[in-house]
Design brief:
The protein is built from 14 helices and 15 strands. By secondary structure, the chain is an alpha/beta fold. The strands form 3 sheets. Strands 12-11-10-9-8-7-13-14-15 form a 9-stranded mixed beta sheet. The chain has a 3-stranded antiparallel beta sheet with strand order 5-1-6. 45% of the residues are buried.
């Protein structure tokens, strides 16, 4: 690259250095995490737009690779960018679920949250979360609710989503995503809930919600927003997964996640919707894609996740908002330190799928009375049908 030696080199705006358990570069636009050796990470920390390619003395092959991947950019003039290189805890806080509001335009029968009181997280606290999560080198911030679009100042929040190093994902029921709404969104990704074909989805979420959700997905994709679908397995849709597979594939989404609800919130009022683990577990094998990065080995499910409620409470995930570990007033870092991650060797699991399954959902395992044992739904997803391997009781 001799002709480019006099050009200035800078880390792309979509990329940031993340010193996790190993040095990485994270591209929030593509959601790609590149593992780097320490020499490479140190070099990239110097690519702040004030040095030329020749001045850095970088290996031409490495620079070419980074340019091709969109990690680095060349400019004709210096343009300084502040780059943070800060070590983090292991495991680090990679994913944050932020409940902007507890208001929702639907009243889904299987929702893990109870009816909200119309509370919005104050704007100053929303941006406090953004700043602190970015400082903690977070990767993916999930905007949740209720329905996040119903936050009274959502569009002001929306305009700031690209100011940080994390990837912003909108978790929505899709019914409010018009063509104009999709085109205004600044999030990098959206996940829309689709819980069965039309009749069963509408029975769970309300008449007409299926058609609106499907249209919302189409509008998001037309606006160029990476879109995934999330489905909860219930007694209403258990026979529809082949049809769902065909539908979701035809829509052209990038990922389909299937899970089973936990006995929480409004779902407690509708126990007839719950499938036994023997039936819900195998349905988890439907779906495709994989939108989560591999974390450090040896930790149970949820070890890189935390949630913030619309009232400012902080918990280890959305299911535990009613049992918070702290409050935003203490800061995310203090709350994260208080949430001791569970190691795999503390679980009673020993099957061959342990590293991949990571014990399954801890809240769901507890709701089945399994405590430090395996989540029986996940056991059935992996074909574990006996107590061998850590299955905790007769749910297997």
């Amino acid at each position: 690259m001799p002709y480019e030696k006099n050009k200035y080199i800078v880390l792309s705006e979509s990329c940031s250095i993340r010193l996790l358990d190993k040095p990485f570069v994270y591209n929030k636009r593509t959601d790609e995490l590149y593992e780097m050796g320490e020499p490479a990470a140190c070099l990239l920390c110097k690519c702040d737009g004030t040095a030329t390619v020749g001045g850095l003395g970088a290996d031409p092959g490495f620079v070419e690779y980074c340019l091709k991947e969109g990690i680095l950019e060349l400019t004709d003039w210096p343009n300084k960018r502040h780059i943070t290189c800060k070590e983090s805890e292991t495991p680090m806080l990679r994913y944050l679920e932020l409940h902007l509001t507890n208001r929702c335009n639907l009243a889904c029968r299987h929702c893990y949250l109870s009816a909200g009181d119309g509370n919005d997280l104050e704007l100053i606290k929303v941006f406090k979360v953004f700043e602190e999560f970015d400082a903690l080198q977070g990767l993916r911030l999930m905007l949740s609710g209720g329905e996040p679009l119903l936050h009274r100042q959502f569009w002001y929040i929306n305009e700031r989503l690209n100011d940080y190093g994390f990837r912003a994902i909108l978790l929505t029921n899709g019914t409010l995503i018009t063509k104009e709404t999709a085109e205004r969104l600044k999030c990098h990704e959206a996940q829309v809930s689709l819980d069965g074909m039309q009749a069963s989805h509408d029975m769970l979420r309300g008449q007409g919600s299926f058609a609106k959700a499907v249209k919302g997905i189409e509008n998001l994709l037309a606006a160029g927003i990476r879109t995934s679908v999330a489905t909860m397995a219930t007694t209403l849709n258990k026979a529809e997964f082949d049809d769902m597979d065909e539908l979701v594939t035809s829509l052209g989404v990038s990922e389909w996640t299937v899970d089973a609800p936990s006995m929480s919130g409004r779902f407690l009022e509708n126990p007839s919707l719950m499938l036994p683990p023997q039936e819900s577990g195998p349905l988890l094998n439907y779906g495709f894609g994989g939108g989560i990065h591999t974390g450090p080995e040896g930790f149970a499910c949820g070890s890189n996740l935390m949630a913030v409620g619309s009232n400012g409470s902080v918990a280890k995930c959305g299911f535990y908002i009613g049992k918070p570990a702290g409050n935003l007033s203490e800061g995310l870092a203090a709350c994260w330190e208080r949430l001791k991650p569970l190691r795999l060797d503390e679980l009673g699991c020993s099957c061959e799928h342990k590293a991949e399954c990571r014990g399954g959902c801890r809240y769901r395992a507890e709701s089945y009375g399994c405590g430090r044992g395996a989540d029986p739904v996940k056991c059935h997803a992996f074909g574990i049908k006996s107590k061998e391997g850590g299955a905790c009781d007769d749910h297997i």
